[in-house]
Design goal:
489 residues, alpha/beta, Leucine Aminopeptidase, subunit E, domain 1, Aminopeptidase, 2 domains, 8-stranded mixed beta sheet, 6-stranded mixed beta sheet, 19% strand
Length: 489
């Protein structure tokens, strides 16, 4: 676990705390907090002199280091004071963490940048610091002696409640990143199931794991069909967290856990096939959220479902032209075995719709390459059946800085996934609206009276441009914070 796990909150003055470096912020107009002014005075007004000369601009996330008898002082630009908000603070925290790692400062003490003491600002700072400290070094053996981790950050001032909550949510994000970054021979369906059990024990959750024989017997033909070509044991994982009366409808999370996707018989090109270890990032979102819920223990009910398998080719693999029967009894014509994620999600959505009377359902999947064409690595594609639920997602998107964009689910698109020989087919019109077609397909497996929102994270689960609090490479853990916010955790 190469990242900070928690932060230390104090009301002590910065210069009274022994550390490897001190950090304060400065606005473009040269404004400093009380803590900042004290540090500036301590080092003979060097910071303000540099600002007056124009050597420091105070631009957002600009960094400068001053060296003194009191040790290094990292000064981070906060931008314009009137434009400073939680996402700005999140980026400042990430910038500080990465600078500390680059300079090999093991313990940094920092101010509550900007001086605002509200819980949401404290949460944003904690998220930035912890997510920015993340590194994935598990398989680095040749350069092990060169690796460096940030061990400790002490924050002077601000909201301890916010810092604590932000630390928990950020740890959920980092947990999701780790799951996504491990290769397919490590993050197997069995590994996901075992991690779910560990989370369940911490959070007093009921965890059930169905093996191939069990879910096939139950009638999960989509998952059974996709899993037919792999010897790696597939799993259907259920997690139940009851934080309030069971009469209160649970909020349901469903994740695609495709731990490696070769495309099956409709095999993918060799180029970048290694990235298909990330095809389980939908399940990583779910487990990242449950990881945080286990620590926070909110007074809500949450059910999580993960359908997990590999998609391989071989003598037993399902084939184009096959007809599969999903858990809700609908038949599916398979026209492309590389459109497999929607098949395993069909069973998961059908199962939770039938057994849990959800308040709403969110599902998460690296589902289509088409969403990358439409939105790049910038935003997650969403679509749903309930206007209020979708608006809640959009509001949380603003709160957490994780961009989403809504696609329509018009009847014309839903007609494109209707089959002539079965109930539905697993692709829409070739070369048209691929992301929407996948959403239209999933809609067939959610009861009409259940509010539902689908997240296509194929463009944001990995590969995005590095953010100050994002990883240099690999899985991002995106959407975990958004979902927790939308659920009111």
């Amino acid at each position: 676990m190469a990242h900070l796990s928690k932060l230390i909150h104090t009301t002590d003055l910065l210069d009274s705390i022994k550390s490897d470096a001190i950090s304060i912020g400065i606005y473009e107009d040269g404004s400093l907090t009380k803590n900042g002014k004290a540090i500036n005075a301590l080092i003979d007004n060097q910071i303000m002199n540099a600002h007056d000369r124009g050597d420091i601009k105070g631009k957002h996330c600009e960094t400068n280091i001053f060296y003194s008898n009191y040790g290094p002082v990292i000064v981070i630009g906060l931008g314009k004071e009137k434009e400073f908000e939680t996402e700005c603070l999140r980026k400042v925290g990430g910038t500080l963490a990465k600078k500390a790692i680059a300079k090999k400062y093991g313990h940094v003490v920092c101010e509550n940048f900007g001086g605002k003491g509200t819980a949401d600002y404290g949460q944003a700072l904690a998220e930035g610091l912890i997510m920015g400290s993340y590194q994935f070094n598990d398989y680095m053996t040749k350069k092990k002696d060169e690796l460096f981790e940030l061990n400790k950050v002490t924050v002077s001032g601000g909201s301890k409640v916010g810092l604590d909550k932000g630390s928990i949510t950020a740890n959920g994000v980092c947990f999701a990143r780790d799951l996504g970054n491990h290769p397919g021979n490590v993050s197997t369906p069995t590994r996901l199931a075992n991690d779910a059990k560990k989370i369940g024990r911490r959070g007093k959750m009921k965890v059930s794991v169905f093996d191939r024989e069990k879910f096939t017997e139950l009638g999960m033909g989509g998952l059974a069909g996709v899993a037919a070509g792999t010897d790696e044991p597939p799993k259907f994982i259920l997690m139940e967290y009851w934080g309030t009366k069971k009469s209160i409808k649970p909020k349901v999370l469903v994740g695609k856990g495709l731990t490696f996707d070769s495309g099956g018989i409709s095999i993918k090109p060799a180029a970048k096939m290694d990235e298909m270890k990330f095809d389980m990032c939908g399940s990583a979102v779910v487990l990242g959220c449950m990881h945080a819920i286990a620590a926070i223990k909110p007074k809500i009910n949450v059910v999580a479902a993960i359908a997990s398998t590999e998609n391989m080719s071989g003598a037993k693999a399902y084939k184009p032209g096959d007809i599969l029967t999903a858990y809700n009894g609908k038949t599916i014509e398979v026209l492309n075995t590389d459109a497999e994620g929607r098949l395993i999600l069909a069973d998961a959505l059908s199962y939770v719709s039938k057994h849990y009377d959800p308040a709403f359902i969110f599902d998460f999947a690296t589902l289509t390459g088409a969403v990358l064409v439409a939105l790049g690595h910038v935003a997650t594609g969403i679509m749903g059946t309930d206007v209020k639920l979708v608006e809640r997602v959009k509001k949380s998107s603003v709160n957490t800085g994780e961009k989403v964009w809504e696609f329509p689910l018009w009847e014309e698109y839903c007609e494109q996934v209707q089959s002539k020989i079965a109930d539905v087919k697993n692709i829409g019109t070739p070369m048209q609206a691929g992301t929407i077609a996948a959403g239209a397909f999933l809609k067939e497996f959610v009861d009409e009276d259940i509010p539902w929102c689908h997240f296509d994270i194929a463009g944001t689960a990995w590969g995005e441009k590095e953010k100050p609090y994002g990883p240099k490479v690999g899985a991002t853990g995106n959407i975990v914070r958004l979902v927790l916010d939308a659920m009111g955790v």
